[in-house]
Description:
- The chain is α/β, with parallel strands linked by helices.
- The chain has helices at 16-27, 41-48, 67-77, 91-102, 120-134, 143-151, 179-188, 209-219, 270-280, 298-306, 323-330, 340-351, and strands spanning 7-12, 32-38, 55-58, 82-86, 107-110, 170-175, 198-202, 223-226, 237-240, 246-249, 255-258, 285-289, 310-314, 336-338.
- The protein has 2 domains: 7-141, Rossmann fold (3-Layer(aba) Sandwich); 157-358, Rossmann fold (3-Layer(aba) Sandwich).
- The chain is 35% helix and 18% strand.
Amino acid sequence: MLRENKIKVLVVEDSSVVRTLLEHILKSDPQIQVIGMVRNGHDALSFLTRETPNVVLMDIEMPEMDGFETTRRIMETQPLPIVICSGSRNQSETITTFRLMEVGAVAFVEKPVGREHQDFDAVAGHLLQTVKLMSEVKVVRRWAKSTRTAVDSTPTSPATPRRASGKIDVIGIGASTGGPPVIQTILTGLTKDFPVPLLVVQHIAPGFLPGLVDWLNQTTSLNVQVASYGVEPLPGNVYFAPDDYHMAISSGGRIVLSREEPDSGLRPSVAHLFHSLAEFCGSRAVGVLLTGMGKDGAEELKNLKNGGALTIVQDRETSAVHGMPGEAIALGAATYVLPPDGIARALVAAANQELLLKRGMS
Length: 362
């Protein structure tokens, strides 16, 4: 459905070449209007005293005031959907990208490559899609931090972690657009002695996964890592599917990585992980589907539920994009529909065997 009014975008970028390229891409979509282009955070804050865009497209490294400080000030004073546009994949800047999401940015996109580059159309298309989707997101002041505070009061796991008494062997989590801060909120609600391993498929631009893992290791108490082939997942550990590899669990309970054909254009795919959990773990698995566009994993989550597994889906109110969770709800795949802090509490309860007794009552 087309909006009645165009999506107004403010571009904050210090490079005049990149500003021109971003303007060209944004103006190629008839639904988008570029209402301003500024070179740093000071200029952005000044612009926002005069006009209110629907989306701010923000660079990270800028003179005078960088993207982090600018995002923090905007989200504390006049919250707006902020999309981070990052061109660097070095470790420090990718960590900063996720710190920006912690203070309120709703998504990030790759900075476009030159028009002659073979990936230009794909990168530009993703940028336009993200800007349009994020223009509909309702933001509040420092939402992620307030949510995380609520999760801190959840019950703790048993003092001596084991394989959940044989009843829950693994938790599978799938996420796409808007997923990183939600995953952080969930993991913050789990203690380092959490008695079940977690396997995560997060759709993310190539090269940004190490920064996400480092950020989560810095801001949560669990051991977060990129998955390796053949590893037996351990309690209290979080394993992310590597770039361009499907991740699954084997019949012997070990992680399997593969370069099988993409599933609906996606590799890794949530569907691939959930399919293996349904096949080899059944009722001993928990499936969690979070914010994201499309329908990756929804059908497979239904199969998990049909096999007796506990399934949890993020609610519409806290999802940046309710595509994946919405599809799952429509299929009847969700045992519970919860916000991120509620998901953390549910996982703690499930690991402690409390929620299993109530399954199917929602």
